[in-house]
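Example record for the data management plan.
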Amino acid sequence: MLQKDLLLPYRTIEDNVALPLLIRGMKKDEARKKVRPFFAGFGIEGTQKQFPAELSGGMRQHAALLRTYLFSKDVALLDEPFSALDTLTKTDMHRWYLDAMEDIRLATLFITHDIDEAILLSDRIYLLRGKPGTLTDKIIIDEPKPRRRDFNLTERFLSYKKQILSKLK
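Corresponding structural encoding:
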């Protein structure tokens, strides 16, 4: 899943989400039936017959994440998926993401330049530097899940942030 949701504007949300199943050769009606139960859990119930242009950026990202989940149920690669969202929508997406990942148990390799986002969403943070990117450090975020809603306001969170910033200097 990339920074942009890459939903196809001429397909409904249901058909966009079902795309991985269609690519694998599943019939359209069967694919639609299979994806329907996931809409509520991914926070997009009621959007199935809408088109991407009719949804907010956050709702589009929910749909894109569901499509990514259906494409690979073991591991997902997310490349700055929330970077295009405004601050309030991003905060809502972070909360939803943490809850959803706890429910579906999807391992995620999450690429971000946002240190706060990395600390909030990750169990392990790998710092890369240079071109080509070279792994320089690994930081374990030793916090219980599900994370407290106010975790990003704690001294512990600030301690992780200081540790990362000191390693990036």
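Summary line stored alongside the record: The two ends are 29 Å apart (CA to CA).
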